[in-house]
Amino acid sequence: MSILKILFLCLSMCMSSLVFAWGEFEHMVAADMALKKLSPGEKLGVEKDAYALLRQQETDRRLYLRRNFTGTSPLAQVSLFADTYRNLTVEELYEQFGSSVPALFENVQQANTSNWHYKNRPYYTTLISTLLDGEQCDLQQETDIAWALENLMTAFQDAETDANRQLALAMIVHFVVDAHQPLHAATQVDEDCNTDRGGNDFCVEYRVNGLTCETNLHAYWDNAAGFFDSYETVDEAIAFVERVDADPDQASDLDPEQWLREGFSYARFIYSIKDGSGGDQFYTQDAQVISYQRLALAADRLAIILKDLY
Predict the structure, then answer these.
(1) Average pLDDT of the segment spanning 192-198
(2) Which parts of the chain fold into alpha helices (H)?
């Protein structure tokens, strides 16, 4: 075994409690909440596919998931799949998991899936709107999260192999949740239409030296403004979020573009935070409420989608 692998295993074994960001903890919470809403037959089909894909991941990766997310379902664990392999090209991704690229992805098979996680919609401050004098920044991409979800749903339904279906499932589960993080739907722009990359270039808190950023705005919202810090397990977080009553009519809206519009509607509040301020208690409280409400809505919508698929 390589030295790097040994170090990885030792680190995993030594950490008894971790602080997880939206990229891990939140996806697992939504996936396991959705799973609880399925019938036994639907759950069996979903878990069978999720487990089959989970077994194909590298041993180190499976050990990491087993150690740090004890008690979570195979679906929750493969909900992280899209982040783990986001830097592979589409062709490499399908090849690595024993499948061929579906026809609808052939035109993007040499690109990776990083752009599939968000949609750039420009947020203009009053000042920037004035400087642009009515002009609009064109941030359209060939691929984005709404495009990805639409095509992955088709790929799932048209899958000719188990492997193709399982890959589509893992990606769908991840992107449904990503689409409910507001900063996957908005990015602030300047007068030259340069973006802050969904808050990644906006510093909420600087390190002691004042020169480097400790926490950027995207990471702050990924961590639900610290909401998950008080929970050590996914089940503990689920017990709280399950008490949030999502509007059934809103939950039944399965249009990803609408989910993104909902997220974008929070942009003015999100960008009201001052650079380097760390966020005061009122901003933090409101950000946490928005985050767990979005999470509950994501879980409800994911459950409806899984019922339709299985």
Answers:
(1) 96
(2) 3-14, 27-35, 40-55, 59-68, 74-78, 81-84, 90-96, 126-132, 145-158, 162-178, 217-222, 234-241, 248-251, 256-264, 267-270, 281-309
